[in-house]
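Researcher: Sequence recovery benchmark, item below. Answer with residues only.
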């Protein structure tokens, strides 16, 4: 039988751990990677497993799958948590794996929360993965592309695990309750309530069920009052520093950009429901106003700043309503990313081009010496020109004179801005042609 690195002894073991499946047929979910005819299942069934990374949200079966794999390929199972383990723990695990390897035994070294290990700690596993001392399985809730070393990723196949559906969670709950209380069935409605509150997390669902069993006591029957007590303090999954956080704010932003106020409100409510700070959303909403609406509707930015101010002044729930108003306005407003694109082009130019000096006519001349040096000479004061526009004047360094960055779109107020800008640019072109006696 596979062995744990650390013996649990007689310590309490949660229901989710006690009811781990013993075969692939008992494993619920993740059919896309472990179902019939999948490459991973093929490897497991033939005992030809490779090192791998299991990436997915909490409670979707990463640890359970790793333990199940060890059982099925008859390998020793060594487990470390990157949250708690240090250099000594890694060294001890490697030594134990080497002992198994010397006796011809396969070993799986499972690292939970592997993204918590730093670069040096991750690199420490590489030689032993290379020489076959152990099969490495890492579990992570964070994007491996950002959190794991390329050297480790090149030696391990990444498998993405998905949140469990409510139907899958109901099946897990009913199977668990049948083992806990064979004589009393779990009502479908109660199982669905627990599944919905678990939010795709099997561990949370089973913890709910275990608590419900404790509340039921000897009666061993779950009623609505018990389910209500269990779910009273339930909080949906929302990782304030992980992928779920950025995925949801991305969905909100893209819904606004896509002019879908309904979806935008949904993701806004999802983030609030998960415990996101409304002020963070307010900052991002202001960003959306500049990035995706811009000068097509300049009122959008003012409205968003005002909503942010309401959130700071009044808090909940008045502030959230003001943010909802701003989000809906952004979603239905005319869209333009012309300023955003122009700004990014300007930044790229500044990084790539030399630091050209400011042309003399654009410099101030607060001293006589600077005036004698030509500072400010030949500068044309726009207010003294026809229509307050100095046609033909150049405000760039000479090397960049013909540069154009801002190109308004034909939507919203920018349609009018585009007309005005075209008129001004035409005046510039005519003035320059006249200056150099060029025919129009």
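Model:
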């Amino acid at each position: 039988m596979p062995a744990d690195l650390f013996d649990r002894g007689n310590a309490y073991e949660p229901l989710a751990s006690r009811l781990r499946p013993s075969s692939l047929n008992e494993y619920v979910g993740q059919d896309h990677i472990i179902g019939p005819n999948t490459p991973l299942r093929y490897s497991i069934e033939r005992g030809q497993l490779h090192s791998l990374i299991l990436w997915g949200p909490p409670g979707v079966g990463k640890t359970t799958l790793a333990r199940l794999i060890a059982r099925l390929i008859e390998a020793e199972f060594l487990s470390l948590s990157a949250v708690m383990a240090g250099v000594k723990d890694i060294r001890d695990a490697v030594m134990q794996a080497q002992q198994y390897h010397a006796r011809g035994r396969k070993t799986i070294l499972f690292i939970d929360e592997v993204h918590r290990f730093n670069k040096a700690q991750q690199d420490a596993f590489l030689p032993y993965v290379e020489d076959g001392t152990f099969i490495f399985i890492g579990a992570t809730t964070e994007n491996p592309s950002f959190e794991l070393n390329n050297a480790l990723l090149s030696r391990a196949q990444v498998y993405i695990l998905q949140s469990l559906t409510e139907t899958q969670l109901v099946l897990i709950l009913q199977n668990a309750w049948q083992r806990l209380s064979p004589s009393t069935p779990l009502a479908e409605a109660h199982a669905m309530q627990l599944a919905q509150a678990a939010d795709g997390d099997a561990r949370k669902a089973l913890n709910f069920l275990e608590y419900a069993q404790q509340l039921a006591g000897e009666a061993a029957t779950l009623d609505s009052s018990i389910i209500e007590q269990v779910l009273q303090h339930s909080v949906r999954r929302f990782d304030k520093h992980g992928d779920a956080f950025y995925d949801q704010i991305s969905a909100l932003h893209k819904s606004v950009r896509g002019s879908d106020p309904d979806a935008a409100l949904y993701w806004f409510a999802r983030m609030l429901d998960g415990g996101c700070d409304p002020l963070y959303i307010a900052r991002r909403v202001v960003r959306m106003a500049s990035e995706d609406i811009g000068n097509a509707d300049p009122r959008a930015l003012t409205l968003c700043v005002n909503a942010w101010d309401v959130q700071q002044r009044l808090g909940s729930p008045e502030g959230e309503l003001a943010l909802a108003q701003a989000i809906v306005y952004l979603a239905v407003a005319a869209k333009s990313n012309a300023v955003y694109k122009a700004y990014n082009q300007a930044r790229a130019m500044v990084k790539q081009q030399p630091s050209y000096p400011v042309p003399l006519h654009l410099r101030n001349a607060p001293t006589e010496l600077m005036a004698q040096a030509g500072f400010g000479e030949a500068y044309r004061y726009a207010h003294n020109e026809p229509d307050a526009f100095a046609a033909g004047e150049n405000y760039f360094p000479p090397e960049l004179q013909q540069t154009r960055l801002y190109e308004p779109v034909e939507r919203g107020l920018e349609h009018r801005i585009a007309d005005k800008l075209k008129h001004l640019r035409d005046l510039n072109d005519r003035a320059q042609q006249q200056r150099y006696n060029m025919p129009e």
